[in-house]
Amino acid sequence: xxxxxxSDEYFMNEALKEAQKALDLEEVPVGAVVVNQNRIIxxxxxxxxxxxxxxxxxxxxxxxxxxxxxxxxxxxxCTLFVTLEPCVMCAAALKWAQLDRLVIAAPDPKEGFxxxxxxILHKKTKVxxxxxxxxxxxxxxxxxxxxxxQRN
Length: 152
Prior knowledge:
The protein is α/β, with parallel strands linked by helices. The protein is built from five helices and five strands. Strand 1 and strand 2 form a beta hairpin.
């Protein structure tokens, strides 16, 4: 499907391409892109297996990459598009990065930061859920179905 350039759907589709890269590497298919002034400044996908690092979530890698690109530790005026709701670790990192907007495709009812009763994101961060949720959920279902089939 073709999405209008510079729309939330367009950028989330780019994050889905990253999630597909993770799936191809047999990683949990989560992808992320950071956008600043309507251009992608960072792309990332889960690499916990590839890097043997439990912190190598797409969001964490994207934060580091975007900060390096900007030459600054804060991601003010930036939007993170991520295909799965961030975990508590990633949400805390996003708080410290002072992210402007967080756009999420699929919720994570088991590990997502929204399970917490208190607000973990920066107070100025705007959250937009459900952008291309169906597409992101399909990738995740494919991954876990493949994992179950490999165990049997």
